[in-house]
Known about the structure:
Blueprint: H1 19-36, E1 40-48, E2 52-55, E3 60-62, E4 77-84, E5 89-96
Antiparallel strand pairs: 1-2, 1-4, 2-3, 4-5
Amino acid sequence: MLPDFGVGLHQYLFEQQDQRTYAHITSGIIDQVSKYMPFVLIDDVEITSGTHLWRNSGDYIMLPPEQRDDLSDNSLQIRVAFTVESLNLTSILNVLA
């Protein structure tokens, strides 16, 4: 078993959903991928709540009503764009948390 494997999203369950929390989740994703899957390059991470969008570039945007989806403020959609150069593969992983 690998006790340190994973980002540990459960630890953010009752945290305030803000830039700081999203930055911690993003850095956790990047750190875990680089540690356990060094052949995978993270191109981008986006975290969307019902009203806000966070990008790993540091952008934190309040979404206008027409761009908001059906997510509540109590859930997150995490989008990870990645590349595996050895396979010439680029893809996106979507996680609803």
